[in-house]
Amino acid sequence: xxxxxxxxxxxxxxxxxxxxxxxxxxxxxxxxxxxxxxxxxxxxxxxxxxxxxxxxxxxxxxxxxxxxxxxxxxxxxxxxxxxxxxxxxxxxxxxxxxxxxxxxxxxxxxxxxxxxxxxxxxxxxxxxxxxxxxxxxxxxxxxxxxxxxxxxxxxxxxxxxxxxxxxxxxxxxxxxxxxxxxxxxxxxxxxxxxxxxxxxxxxxxxxxxxxxxxxxxxxxxxxxxxxxxxxxxxxxxxxxxxxxxxxxxxxxxxxxxx
Length: 258
Hints:
The protein contains eight helices and ten strands. By secondary structure, the chain is an alpha/beta fold. The protein has a single domain (51-77, 92-255), classed as P-loop containing nucleotide triphosphate hydrolases (Rossmann fold), CATH 3.40.50.300. The chain has a six-stranded mixed beta sheet, with helices on both faces. Strand 1 and strand 2 form a beta hairpin.
């Protein structure tokens, strides 16, 4: 397995002066109608600072994945507003929103979603090619060096380990220099050692590459790598935790019923 580059120490917790990269204002999200209606988000207001690493946690069914999907523009709020950086994405026409996500939002999922017929290099640069944008060679080299794949860019995904594939997925999320990178249980399919390597990388993405990272996780160990944790329960924000550690996260989650 290719070793990761030396990672910088975690950045300090977010400061009040840091501008918001993700802004939700009184967001409501419901599914269904009538007696079958379910409220997944019940008036959520949240600002996440730029260049920080935020973990979102909550019990099963709390609304944490819905929160991420709405914040990332994958799902539209029923009411309220959502902005990424200075761009309001709620209410944006679908075609325009699709282009905005492709060009300005990075995604990392539990499944790596790499195309087997493409090389690592082609998978990483795919969002640029789909957007008919040229590849910034210097940024490409910087990103693949940061994720530890410089010697593997001509291989295909099936020739990589699970951890290497996830690093390729992270590089793909970074290649457009996005407003924010959203990660949904990014270590869920990895063994504990590889998971820690990927979390080290996610930490470095925020502190070293100065990118905004938002990660949904159920794992206190994974959340402890973040600058801060946002807790959600019953579709509402249930608290925040700065400079988190595993014991404190676990205690807070137990209070929420997880």
